[in-house]
Amino acid sequence: MDDVQNQIDNRGIKIQQTGIKNVFLPLVIFDQQVQAMIKFTVSLTKNFRGTHMSRLMEILTDWTSKPLSMININSILDEAIDKLNTDSAKIHIDFKYFVERDAPVSKKKSLLDLDCFIEGETIEKQRNFILSVAVPLTTLCPCSKEISNFGAHNQRSICRVQLHFDNVDQIISIEELAKLIEMQASSPIYSLLKREDEKFVTEAAYQNPKFVEDILRDVVIAVRKIHNVKYFTVECENFESIHNHNAFAFHEEKIC
Amino acid sequence: MDDVQNQIDNRGIKIQQTGIKNVFLPLVIFDQQVQAMIKFTVSLTKNFRGTHMSRLMEILTDWTSKPLSMININSILDEAIDKLNTDSAKIHIDFKYFVERDAPVSKKKSLLDLDCFIEGETIEKQRNFILSVAVPLTTLCPCSKEISNFGAHNQRSICRVQLHFDNVDQIISIEELAKLIEMQASSPIYSLLKREDEKFVTEAAYQNPKFVEDILRDVVIAVRKIHNVKYFTVECENFESIHNHNAFAFHEEKIC
Amino acid sequence: MDDVQNQIDNRGIKIQQTGIKNVFLPLVIFDQQVQAMIKFTVSLTKNFRGTHMSRLMEILTDWTSKPLSMININSILDEAIDKLNTDSAKIHIDFKYFVERDAPVSKKKSLLDLDCFIEGETIEKQRNFILSVAVPLTTLCPCSKEISNFGAHNQRSICRVQLHFDNVDQIISIEELAKLIEMQASSPIYSLLKREDEKFVTEAAYQNPKFVEDILRDVVIAVRKIHNVKYFTVECENFESIHNHNAFAFHEEKIC
Amino acid sequence: MDDVQNQIDNRGIKIQQTGIKNVFLPLVIFDQQVQAMIKFTVSLTKNFRGTHMSRLMEILTDWTSKPLSMININSILDEAIDKLNTDSAKIHIDFKYFVERDAPVSKKKSLLDLDCFIEGETIEKQRNFILSVAVPLTTLCPCSKEISNFGAHNQRSICRVQLHFDNVDQIISIEELAKLIEMQASSPIYSLLKREDEKFVTEAAYQNPKFVEDILRDVVIAVRKIHNVKYFTVECENFESIHNHNAFAFHEEKIC
User: Fold this and answer.
1) Whole-structure pTM over 0.95, yes or no?
2) How far apart are CA D42 and CA C127, in angstroms?
3) Top-level CATH class of C4-254?
């Protein structure tokens, strides 16, 4: 049977990424079983017409039966580079990760869902890794509090942090990163709050008003202290309770 | 050229709806140009294998060059029934509709976007129409206010109303329906608020705390008074500022 | 601390559903760990102002540590009715379920993801259950094949079936239901196909052309034979390769 | 009334982007009325605590009453920089743009919807503009055609091109760019096709099989010839008819 993908290509264009996208698979990431959505690509030399995408799916399917951690990202990329006979590969894995939280007063336990992704890229032997976590928060508006005789508008917000690393040794855990982010909020968010907890978070948020810019700056300061990071981005988005649009702030920084 | 759709079908199943979905077209609805997403179907007699879907698209394409109101829904359905040689047709049109709002103190004008749909169905000469509007609101939690020494959690909410009619005469306008819904909120929402407005809506919401169930009941009472409605549903969803999930309430009612 | 939810309400409106929505939790459903998105509501008597939503979250959180099957839906609903002191409760759980498939020639194994939901409702002691599975398929257009000298347009399609039951005894499994649906396609879909498999599915689909209406009717015939079903709906949607919109068909049927 | 945003900030962090997101407004872009979704941000000097977001909404609201073209992006950014007293601003506008297409044989006219965005950024007097268009296409698999005795799998694909410019003079129109992209497909896509047209596109696609990598390379070659572009990206995604995931390719290029 003819191998059409292996036909010689004369257009002279090396393709930077080609592969599969929106692949859903059950994976075990950092000891938690997750529903992963995966984008997995390799580069394609200018000489060949197409890549053999089924090999990428074979590699992924193998990982549905064993736990995956940051360190394995390298094996996955190396296997792709080897099997597809190329020099670069990239994988991006989106998943929800659940962390346990105790309500602040009643101490009732519940699970909070965090939208995370890990990404690994190997470009001609150069490694790059990203860990990203998005944490839901409460923000209470300092302006609204200051100018109003009572009350202050507040809302659910999402703060997303992306950390870039050169290598996967000693990378901060999702739990630690999430904790660090939610400490900068007007108040953390919980799935389960009894009445005494609701009183606590309401008052805590009122006593700790923060603009979207305040959260952003406080998270930036906290992230700067994380070990090993070479570059990071922080974005914060408030689902404003008084508008039908969102307030947004973004910052990126290289760490020398 | 063979007409495969017209082949005789022996399975004995009359299909209730067959047609086209996720059709995007620019339409003029209630004098406003909108970006419509359309689902347009007809029934298919048990004798034929398939319907001629391109005829549905021809009918829709004609309406991109002239204004469409509730009354025209009948013509569209009748044309489909006639051209597809059947007895039933249904159209569902989703669109964003913009209404102008004056900020409460500064009177600055801005536009608020409402997610709306109109739906028409003719089943063997029986007509049914739906007008649906979703209005963003502010809700402030009565429990949080009561139990806290200061502050109260509040959030953006969406209240959706669906009104069902037998005929399209004297149907309430989107503007009127939206006004009626937002009057039941802790406070309406605005796209543009200067500082004096923000003070106003913050204090207004604090003085008017409402559960998702309160909004729902107050909207139900308001909707009952609308002329001509034979059945309606109301749903209200709060994007809780203290949780990563939403509070939700739903009610439906037949009007005899 | 005041119980504001328990305040007497004078509006005279019994609310049909009030509760929590867009709750993400890890659950074990039919022996598979899934990422569930849950809507969980109860009715609220006309006498009380609000429901105690944190109790619904407490009930759900308990189920993150033990397996859940259709039979447990009853316990969940009964617990909600009891703890919220009401007469009706409803739960809707969306999740992806993975089934293993062997490629048709190479027999390579891979996982196919199915969008499923289970729903249970108890209204004043009357039980109702829904099992719904959406299966991705290939459809090849009979008209395009017939009128063209070579080739035929084909595309990915999704066929969704909803089965309603009075009780949860002897309910068909997701695997069986998925198999039954995909047997009606021009060809099933696989995550992993080697070259000999791709030849097989291409030729199989070409030899088995089906309109969206054909799939719908064949699935209807198959579903009619499932034990215990009292009502069902089938919908099929083709992501047409020659259009930027979808072809769609829908059918519902009561089984006496 | 206190201006809390104007408070002195001591954290020493200049914020790169702060502003509003998910703003929906009706705009007239390139002479077509569109439903725009807008993200509009400015930088914030390290000395101030927050930006005055309502001023961004005021600027946008003004543009709902007059046509907007690429050249006006500069005025919008300059106005933001001026009114917010900063040195950098950025605007991103997503919208659907409709282009008319004649069916290939019957010449029936219909509208095709394209997902577009324009983006403008001014960073300390340095201008950057992006025009992006996503065009739906048909792709037919060369491997499937080659190895199969009859038929070949094909599917809807989306090809997205982003063009970056230093200035807005002589920028290619959306219509031209869309034409240029769809000429590289196995066949263009149409909203309305009569039987003779369906025969035409089916046979055309079969005679013109292309991998996702083929489309990508052919679009890259075409885009290189566009006047004035300093950098571009192309991505192509096939909604594979034989898989439940997508095939994907990406390329970026700097033009010196």
Assistant:
1) yes
2) 56
3) alpha beta
